[in-house]
TrEMBL record:
Name this polypeptide is given: ROK family protein
Cited InterPro entries: ATPase_NBD, ROK
CDD domains for the chain: ASKHA_NBD_ROK_SgGLK-like
Protein family per UniProt: Belongs to the ROK (NagC/XylR) family.
Length: 318
C-alpha cells in the first residue's frame, strides 16, 4: 500500500551536526524546509524532531514522514542500534516516532536515503552498480546494485568510514582507532590542522591555530591561500582518494557519487583525490575506472530520498 500520488511527505535528515527537514512532492521537488541543530540527549532529540516535523505540518498536509538517520539500523529499519554521533542506543525509533507523530514513519540509514534520492531523482539514474559516498561529520556510504540497496546480512554494510587505515591512530567516536573517517571527514580537518602544525613550525603562524575551526572555515582558508589550510586539504584529498580506492577495489562500481557537506568545496580536493584513486586501485592501468561525480541533489539528497521512501512506508521497496 502506498499513499496517494499527489500527497506530500516530509523527509528529515538527522546528522551528527544538523537536523534538516523538507516537505517533498512525488517528483522529488522541495516545497518547504526547516532545520535545527542536533541535540545530544535522547529525550531532547525526540522532542526537537517532533517540533521540527510539526513546524512543517502546520503549513502543509502531510501523509507520511521519513527519517534518515546517521547510524546503524537493524535490517528491517525499525531500531537504531548505535549511532556514533547521536544519543540513540538500541532505540525503537520507528515506533517511538510513529506514536508521537501519529503518521506512518519510514526509518532509513542516512546514506541509503541520500543514495535513494540520487538514484530516483539525481546523479545515479540508470546506474547499475554504484556507490554513494558521503563526507560530512563522518563518512557514510551505500552500495546499490541493479536498483537495490545492499545491506549485508545484519544491516551494517557498508562502513568504509570505519575501516582502519592507521592502526593505533586517531580515536574514533565508534570506539575504534585509526578509522578512515578520522582522516577524511569534515571533523577530521581540525585534527589534521593540529597534527601538521605540530610537525612543521612554518605552519604555526596560521590563524587557523587560534580559533576552533569548522571544516568549512578550514577549506575556506585554503581557498584564500592559507598554507596550513592548503596542506590540510592536501592530506584530506590523499585520504579520500585512498578511501575511494577501497571502494573501487572491493565493489568495482561504474560510478561513485560524492555527497555530504564537505562536497560543497569539491573543486579544492576532488581532482587530487581522483588522481590518488587512479594510482591506488589494483591493476589501475589495466581496467576501466569508476566515474566520480558530485551529488546532484547536494545536501538535500537524504531528505528527498527518505521522503520518497516514506511514500511506501507499509511495504519496503527492497
Ligand atoms: P551531517 O554530518 O550532520 O549530516 P554535513 O554533511 O553537513 O552534516 O557535514 C557537516 C561536517 O562537514 C562538519 O564537520 C562541517 O564542518 C563540514 N562541512 C560542511 N560544509 C563544508 C564545506 N563546504 N567545506 C568543508 N567542510 C564542510
Ligand atoms: Mg548527513
Ligand atoms: Zn570508527
Amino acid at each position: 500500500m502506498s499513499i496517494a500520488p499527489n500527497a506530500l511527505t516530509i523527509g528529515v535528515d538527522i546528522g551528527g551536526t544538523n537536523m534538516r527537514a523538507a516537505v517533498v512532492d512525488a517528483h522529488g521537488e522541495i516545497l518547504d524546509r526547516a532545520a535545527t541543530l542536533t541535540p545530544n540527549s535522547e529525550d531532547v532529540l525526540v522532542d526537537k524532531l517532533v517540533a521540527l516535523v510539526n513546524t512543517l505540518r502546520d503549513r502543509h498536509e502531510i501523509a507520511a514522514v521519513g527519517l534518515a538517520v546517521a547510524g546503524f539500523l537493524d535490517p528491517d529499519c525499525t531500531t537504531v542500534r548505535f549511532a556514533p554521533h547521536l544519543p540513540w542506543r538500541d532505540a525503537p525509533v520507528r515506533e517511538i516516532m510513529t506514536d508521537r507523530l501519529q503518521l506512518p514513519v519510514r526509518l532509513e540509514h542516512d546514506a541509503n536515503s541520500a543514495a535513494w534520492g540520487e538514484y530516483v531523482f539525481g546523479q545515479a539514474r540508470e546506474a547499475g552498480t554504484w556507490v554513494y559516498f558521503s563526507v560530512g561529520t563522518g563518512i557514510g556510504a551505500t552500495i546499490m546494485h541493479r536498483g537495490e540497496i545492499f545491506r549485508g546480512s545484519f544491516g551494517m554494510a557498508p562502513e568504509f568510514g570505519h575501516v582502519t587505515v592507521v592502526p593505533g591512530g586517531r580515536q574514533c567516536s565508534c570506539g575504534k582507532r585509526g578509522c578512515l573517517e578520522r582522516y577524511a571527514s569534515g571533523t577530521a580537518l581540525a585534527d589534521t590542522v593540529l597534527e601538521l602544525a605540530d610537525d612543521c613550525p612554518e605552519y604555526r603562524r596560521s590563524p587557523l591555530l587560534h580559533t576552533a575551526s569548522t571544516g568549512e572555515e578550514i577549506m575556506n582558508a585554503a581557498r584564500d591561500g592559507d598554507a596550513l589550510g592548503q596542506a590540510v586539504v592536501g592530506e584530506f584529498a590523499r585520504w579520500l582518494g585512498i578511501g575511494l580506492s577501497f571502494v573501487a577495489d572491493v565493489i568495482d562500481p561504474e560510478l561513485i557519487v560524492l555527497g555530504g557537506g564537505v562536497v560543497g568545496n569539491h573543486d579544492l580536493f576532488l581532482p587530487a583525490a581522483d588522481r590518488v584513486l587512479r594510482q591506488s586501485m589494483v591493476a589501475a592501468t589495466h581496467r576501466p575506472h569508476p566515474e566520480v561525480s558530485v551529488a546532484k541533489l547536494g545536501s538535500a539528497a537524504g531528505m528527498v530520498g527518505v521522503a520518497h521512501l516514506s511514500r511506501y512506508a507499509e511495504n519496503f521497496p527492497n
